[in-house]
Design brief:
The protein is α+β, with helices and mostly antiparallel strands. It has two domains: 135 residues; 297 residues, Neuraminidase, CATH 2.120.10.80. It is built from eight helices and 32 strands. Strands 20, 21, 22, 23 and 24 form a five-stranded antiparallel sheet that branches. It has a four-stranded antiparallel sheet with strand order 3-2-1-32, with no helix packed on it. The protein has a four-stranded antiparallel sheet with strand order 5-6-8-9, with no helix packed on it. A hairpin with a 2-residue loop joins strand 26 and strand 27. Helix 7 runs antiparallel to helix 8.
């Protein structure tokens, strides 16, 4: 019997769940003894009928780690026979509780949905994708969403903000902020080599620090180290191919990219990436940049700002430009803007498809950049409540966190322990728990998310 000829069974009247009369797929899942991920890769799942998939994915008691795993199960089923299962894929989309998908996975979901609709116009699939896409990219758009009630039992997503402070007499340390509980932890294990102007990023669930200069001798480094929250230890990693300070790090598609910076000769436009075993030469940017900002969003790397020391070594220009690079699709960087960035020293973060650049100017203006249209949105400019400079910034799920640096109070710049959250949609700024110790100037922050399974 063809899938399209089968009439889906009605839902049962049982309250408190999404159980269906047809539970054959769920019974097979329970009896298999497999994890959810293992089961949706199994042939029995991949050969199921459309109504079975929809009924199965709507259940409250699936032991999936996160909601995106449930979406990827649907996607894997669809990819098995994309020409005949498109209608079933569209129909089953409302089984996914999109509002529960964490922002760090949104890029993969959007990419997958776009791929599914690439060659199809039936039933307005592109329009459906565009609605979900806009909802993820900008919370200002109010659209009907799937069920926002968490499944039970469901894994718990914990979010941690790690802040690498400036080198001090007693070393250089990390502090960890638990976003869920609004509490700080000071990590006693200090970094092996105190360094300034290093690149910092979250990669493979760890805090990675690359390059920079030694705090005392000012020696340029190619060394790389990482902090593992599980072992609470720092470890040496494979060194980069090139010494660089003032560089920037970002993780994308299972690789860690080190871009720009400066060596003994001058500012660099080169890049390299770590694939898990070794560093390899990457594609060079259009312009040399030191002390630049680098973020990844969707499947794109964005490099912004930075300094370019000219050949006479006496003139340093601040670059008011942004360039981007898609490693999977393109073989070069593309410059998209040359005028909009404010003065040097700003911080760039990305969340839900939008880039935000926060300047160190007195007005503390927040500039918004649309990653899909490559234009700045001047109408959405907002400002931080209290001006900051030399601070750290990180973002997750539409919220930006600002920590450390100096704040302008009573007409003077003073080092601060302050942590604030900033909502770029509403412009609201909230004071959160202060750091245990002052983080100092030119600090860096990253966010690491961990899934805690139910017992």
């Amino acid at each position: 019997m063809a899938e399209s000829d089968y009439e889906p069974p009605c839902k049962s009247a049982k309250p408190g769940g999404s159980r269906n009369i047809d539970e054959s797929l769920y019974q097979a899942y329970r009896q298999s003894g497999m994890s959810f991920r293992e089961f949706y890769e199994d042939r029995q799942f991949l050969t199921a009928l459309s109504h079975e998939i929809k009924c199965f994915l709507k259940r409250d008691d699936l032991l999936a780690d996160t909601e995106e795993d449930i979406y990827f199960a649907l996607d894997r089923w669809y990819q098995e026979h994309p020409t005949t299962r498109l209608d079933g894929y569209i129909d089953a989309l409302d089984a996914i509780r999109f509002a529960l998908i964490s922002s760090n996975k949104v890029d993969k979901v959007l990419t997958s949905m776009a791929m599914n609709g690439m060659d199809c116009t039936r039933r307005g699939l592109w329009q459906s994708i565009d609605l979900y896409h806009k909802k993820f990219a900008r919370q200002r758009v109010v659209l009907p969403m799937a069920n926002t009630t968490p499944r039970t039992p469901r894994a718990n997503l914990k979010k941690y903000l790690y802040v690498l402070g400036a080198p001090r007499d007693d070393g250089q340390f990390l502090q960890c902020y638990d976003i869920n509980s609004n509490t700080w932890t000071f990590i006693e294990e200090k970094i092996y080599i105190s360094r300034t102007d290093a690149g910092v990023a979250a990669f493979n669930g760890c805090v990675w620090v690359a390059g920079g200069r030694t705090a005392i001798e000012r020696k340029i480094l190619d060394s790389v180290c990482s902090y593992d929250p599980k072992t609470q230890m720092w470890s040496d990693e494979e060194p980069m191919n090139q010494k660089r300070y003032g560089c920037a790090l970002a993780a994308l598609d299972g690789k860690l990219y080190a871009v720009g910076g400066r060596n003994e000769i001058g500012a660099l436009k080169t890049s390299e990436y770590y694939d898990g075993s070794e560093w390899k030469e990457g594609i060079s940017m259009k312009e040399p940049r030191e002390h630049l900002e680098l973020v990844s969003e969707i499947d794109i790397l964005f490099a912004a700002g930075g300094l370019d020391t000219k050949s006479d070594y006496n003139f340093t220009a601040y670059l008011k430009s942004v360039e981007y690079y898609r490693p999977m699709l393109e073989s070069s960087w593309t410059i998209v803007n040359k005028k909009m960035l404010p003065r040097e020293g700003g911080r760039l973060v990305a969340t839900q498809g939008i880039l935000y650049f926060m300047g160190w100017d007195i007005g503390s203006t927040v500039f918004e950049y649309q990653t899909f249209s490559h234009v700045w949105c001047s109408a959405a400019r907002r400002s931080l409540r209290v001006p900051r400079e030399k601070f750290a910034a990180a973002a997750t799920e539409g919220m930006i966190y600002l920590v450390g640096g100096s704040m302008l109070r009573t007409g003077e710049w003073k080092e601060t322990k302050s942590l604030q959250s900033f909502n770029p949609v509403t412009g609201e700024t909230k004071d959160l728990a202060d750091t245990v110790k002052p983080a100092g100037a030119h600090v860096r922050a990253v966010i690491i998310e961990r899934t805690i399974l139910p017992e």
